[in-house]
Structure formats: C-alpha cells, structure tokens
Amino acid sequence: APAPPPPKPTCTAAAGCVLVQHANVEILRVNKPWAPSGITGVKPAGDPTSDGKLFIEITQAHGQDVAWSKDPTYDPDYSGDDGAVQPMLTVGYQPASSFGGPSARIWAHGPGDSSFSTFRTLELFADSTESERLGMSMRRIPRLLAPQTSESPLFMHLTDISPEGIKKAVDQMTVLKGFDMLIFSFGSGFNLENTTPAYMAQIKASVDYAHTHGIEVGGYDLIALSRGGTGYDTIDPNTGSPSGSACFASGWNRELLNKTLTFLAGTGLSMVETDGPYGGVPCGSEHHDHYDAADSVQRQWENQVAFYAQLRALGVYVHAPDNYAYEGGANKNCGWYSEMQFSMPRWQHISVSHTEVYDHTFTNTPTGTWMFAPLVVYHSGGEPAALEPFAEHIDAWEWTLATYLGAGVGACYRGNELFDTPEVQAMVTKWTSFWVQYRSILTQDIVHVKRPDMQSIDSIMHVTANNSMDVAALAMVYNPTLTNQSTTLSFNLYYTGETADVYLSHEEAAPTRVSLRRDYTIAVPVTLPPRGISYYVVRRVASVAPTHRRQPE
C-alpha cells in the first residue's frame, strides 16, 4: 500500500480555521406559476413541465440538494390565506448524514485553503409550459454556458487496436470522408496508463498515421468507479471496508493525472474518454487527502473537476459520464440509453434508441450527449444484437446511421470496421456525405414533428433562426414499418424566424417556393417505402435564385 500523506492540520478557531459544515447556495421564495402547487412538505425540485415554470440546474453533480418546501416563516395563526404562502426553493449541500459536505476548512493564514467556492445554481424562468418552447429554453443554457458541448466530431470506437486494425479503420474513415476521430475502445486492450516507452512508441506510430489523414485519436480509460485495487480504495464509512472504487481525493488522482499527461504527450492523443469518473461515493479512509467522510464527497468532486479542467486546458476533447460540463469543461455526457438495451435483437434496440433520441432532445441539445451502436457483440446479446457483418444487416446499419446522423447526435460506433462490401461502403458514404453537407443545421435544435410509434412515419426537424445560414430547417422522416406508408406532416417553421415564404426541397431535388400558413406551418405529403428514410430541406428565400416555381395552393 502507498504511504499515507502527512498528518493534516487540525482545524480550530485558535488555529485561525473555520469549518463550513453546511451551506445554502440559493434560497428563493416564489409563487405560481414559477413554483409547484400544493406543497405540504419538502419535495425535490422537479421538471417545470409538471412542477411550475422555474427550471433549476446545478453545476455540481454530487453532494448537492435541491428542494421545494413551505416557507417556514409562514404563521398559520396570523393568516389563514393559503395564497399568502410562498413556496421556498432551497439549493445547498446535502446534510452531514449523507456526507454531502462540504465540510470545507478555511484558514485565515496557512496551512490550507484561504477560501471556498460553492457550486452555482442556474435558474431559468420559462415563459411557457409548452414542451417545445420550454425545451428550447432549457437547451439554451448549455449552448450559452457550456459552449464546448456544441463540438460535434463524428467518431468510431475501435475494438481492434493492432497496428493493422488501426490502419484499416483510418483508411476506411478517410475513404468515407466524414469521420473526424478514432477512439480506442474498452475491451480492445488499450491501456492509457501504460507509459512504458515501447508501448507509447507503438501507439504513437498509429496516431501519427491517423494524423496524416486528418483523423484525431483518443482512448478509453476506467478511472474511478469499479476501479478497486489501486492502493487508494474508497472506504465505505458505514462498514470500514473497501467499496470497490478508487478514491479521487487521494494519491490516485495525482498518479492517474501524471500518467494521462505523460501518455498524451508521448503519443499525440488528443481525446480521452473516461468511464466511471467520480460518481458521488463517500470515503471514510483516514489516510487520503480528505479529512474524513464528511468532506470526502466535496474533495473528490473538486479533484475530478480539476482533472478534466487540466485536460481541457491542453485542448483535449473529453467524454465524461455525469455532469462535468459546467465545471471541468467536459464536451459530452453519456447518453440516454441503458447498456443492456443493446443486448436485445438489433431491430429492437434500434427502435428503442430511435425513440430515446426523439424523447430526450426535448430537453437536451443533440451534441451534448453520445449514444451507442454495437457493431460487434456487446454485453449478452450475441450475434442477433450486433450490426456486423454489415452485408447481412445493411438495413439495420443504415437505420442506425440515419437515426444518429439525422438527429445530429454523436454515437460510439463500436467495432472493427465501418463497411465490408462496396454496397455497404456506398450506403455509409451516402450518410457521411449527408452529414458533411448539412452538419451546420444538423447540430441545431430539434423541433419534434411526430413521435416514433414503430407503426407509422415519424419525424424530427432541425431549425435555426440564424438568417446568415441559408438552410433554415431540415426535417428527417422515417418509416420503421415493413409496409409502404403515406401521411401529411405539418412542419412548424416558427423557430426559423421565417414568416412568409420559404423554399422546400425533397432531398436534393429542385426547390419549390411555399407559403407559410398563419400558424407558421407548411403541410408536406410524405410517402416512404418499407423501412424508408428521407429528408426535406427548407431554405430561406434570399438564398435561392428566383427561378423556381411556387407550389400550387
């Protein structure tokens, strides 16, 4: 076991130290429509779609507490008027019984910190409970305050990291002209913590080859959760036994950071995907950098944030499960899926993922999250769940690509290759070319046209009010059924800022000028073959030469 750190100084008033055992960051008394109604006791703050129009987001993922309660200053003997009672929002740290902390020690003069910074409370006072408008408002928060989440590389998760496997993947990505990044996947044998010169030289040779083709390279590492045996195990404060994870307020944090920085410098990697970052587990060890369990959550959180911040300062692109976007600067959070859904037969997990993308982009930007695609076997599904060999499952592979690229959502395409026949190559090229051509609109906010029910045509539409962009909207339409389907969809162009006429194209056909109805919509007849996928492009009038015909009324 590693040697324990030096004894920590005792925090006492005589030593000029203040122990902050609890702190409320925000106390806000507010009535309807911002607050929920019918509060009789403490309740967690909820989504404003059902809980009032005040949306709360916290910049710290662990150790904090958000709750609505009845204003304790209300005196029922003074007034029986319930309308005079303001619900009270309290945002602070979890109680000591939950080890939320912060239990921060502030020193007037040495030997420790002279200040303590709390997390921040982000408050959105929405003007509507209508799901699309409310969702647009909520999506504005990360676009404004965490703009790095709008970066949108198209990446592959490679499982064959032999020099030959890497070269094959890079060559395929180059031919396809659309992929930006290669990530050495979990289960591939890649070891970010192996800083031996021979291993780093082997990886550097492959990274250099990728760089000559314009491909960035990253790698996966499991860094804290389920990472026992490091010599810095998290100790369960209730049992005194190791909990199976590494404590991030210990020498492990420093050791991991040093190895990571050494590996990045020695190989040229420019991306890190960290699985199992600090996830909120308290640690009762007396031999780590924290004092005890009471301050362990806060100290581990701060160290994990600093870990990511140092990588981001070097320009490293970071995938991080949990909310490390506002503090730490992570680029993407883990997606809306359950890992075990990809053990279902391929068309079942494709259908589930297709619906998850629709549902979760009400409140999330397309680019802030990654999804998953099991090109090879993942978990317990076996061959019926995998998309390879592509030649045998080309429809399933195309649906996967069209779901994610059509929504502007990055996905871990995890496997050994991206195509296995010329026919599959042509299909993938069609969609990567589509991504390259329309990337600027595909990464914009989504208006939800028709929810997938797997029995009829469904649709989403990207929109932008930025009139410097010629394309104002792009609608994806999908037919998941095994029969021909026809319907008329209503595309609401209100959020494009257009009020009169636009040009509408079916895929790359010549555009037709159409007029918006009074409710800013246009009606579009759609017919798709079995498992057909298509798209419609809406362009601003000023961007199209005035030679195209108007659609008949």
Task: Give an overview of the whole structure.
Helix content is 25%, strand content 25%. Helix 6 (293-313) links the parallel strand 14 (271-275) and strand 15 (317-319). It is an alpha/beta fold. Helix 3 packs parallel to helix 4 (197-212) and helix 8 packs parallel to helix 9 (422-442). The chain has nine helices and 26 strands. The strands form seven sheets. An eight-stranded parallel β-sheet has the order 15-14-11-10-9-18-17-16. Strands 19-20-21-26-23-24 form a six-stranded antiparallel β-sheet, with helices on one face. A four-stranded antiparallel β-sheet has the order 2-6-5-3, with no helix packed on it.
Write a brief caption for the model.
The chain is of the alpha/beta class and 553 residues long. The chain has helices at residues 48-51, 131-145, 163-176, 197-212, 251-267, 293-313, 346-360, 394-407, 422-442; strands at residues 17-20, 24-29, 43-44, 54-58, 64-70, 87-93, 104-107, 121-125, 155-158, 181-184, 216-222, 233-235, 242-246, 271-275, 317-319, 333-334, 369-374, 410-415, 446-450, 458-463, 471-478, 485-492, 501-506, 512-515, 521-528, 533-540.
